[in-house]
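=== RUN LOG ===
request id: a7f3
mode: sequence -> structure
chains: 1
length: 331
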Amino acid sequence: MKGSSKIFLILLTAVSMLFFVGCSSDDDTDTVRLAEVTRSIFYAPQYVAISEGFFEEEGIKVDLTTTWGGDNTMTTLLAGGADIALVGAETSIYVYAQEANDPAINFAALTQQDGTFLVSREKISNFDWEMLKGSTFLGQRIGGMPQMVGEHVLRKHGIDPHRDLNLIQNIDFGNIPSAFASGTGDYVQLFEPTATQFELDGIGHIVASFGIESGTVPYTGFMAKESFIKNNRDVIERFTRALYKAQQWVESSSNEEIARSIQPFFSDTDIEIIENVVHNYKSQGSYATTPRIKEEAWENLQQIMDQAGELPMKVEYEKLVNTKFADKVME
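=== RESULT ===
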C-alpha cells in the first residue's frame, strides 16, 4: 500500500476519534503533549532538552508518549491526542496530498540525516557498494523513509535494488534484526543501537552509513497542526527555543556527557553502547544543530520519495515548513 493511501486511512480514523485539542496550563507552566514516533538515541537532543531542564526553563512541561510508528503518530496528532509530533516530514506531505483542512506543519528539525547503517554478515576490510550486487539484502519495509533512502543510495551507486540483488522487504520492522541474526541476508539495513550491538556480539559489521550517503533531509522533526500553531504561537516559540538550547548543548558536549544525560530514557541499554551510538550519529552530523529546516533538504526529501514512487504530489517548501520560530530563537 502506498504511503499516501495509508495516511488516507489515518484521516478516516482520526475523524472517528474525539480528543481535546490544545495544551493545558497553570499559572507558571504549559503542558505540551508530545508524541514521538519511536524511542531512539537518534533523537538525543530531544531527551537532552528534557533532562537538562531546557523545556522547564521555557515554562514547558513535556508529556512525552511513544506512539510507535509514523501512522500511529500522525493519527494521534490529527485526532488531537497530541499537540506536537516528532515524526518524519514525509508524513506531512501524505496528509497534505489528501487535502486536509488542518494540515501538519513542520516547524523544527531534530535529525537531518537518515539514521540507518549498512551491516554485513562478514567483516570487510575495503567495502565497496558493488559488493552488494548478487547478494541478499534485508531492507526496511516498503513505503517508509528508511526503505526509500536505502533504495536511493543503492541507485546512487549504480545498483538497481530490484534487479541487481535479492531484496527482502516483507519483514516487519521489529523483526528485521532477529531475521538477520538467525541467518537471513548477507547485508541488512539497521538503526542504532542494534547495529552497534551486532558488532559487539559478532553478528555483523557496520560497513557504511545511509545517512552520509543520502545527504541532508528533514528526516525527523517536530510538527503541529496549522490551527494549533496559529492559536499557540508563544508555546511553539518557547518549545523551539528549548530545543535550540539542547541542540547547542549536544554540539558542545562530549559523547560521554550526552550519554549520561539521556541514559534515563534508555535504562535497558548499557551506558557504553549509548555513548558509542551518540558518537556514530554526532560524528557524521545526524543531529541537526539548529531547528531550521532547510529548503534544499526539503527538496532532497521529495526527490527521494519521487524516486521510490511514494511522492503523491510535489509540495512547495513554504506550504508545509514554517521557519519563523526557528529563525526567531536563533537571532
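=== NOTES ===
Confidence is low (pLDDT under 50) at residues 14-21.
The first strand starts at residue 24 and ends at 25.
=== END ===
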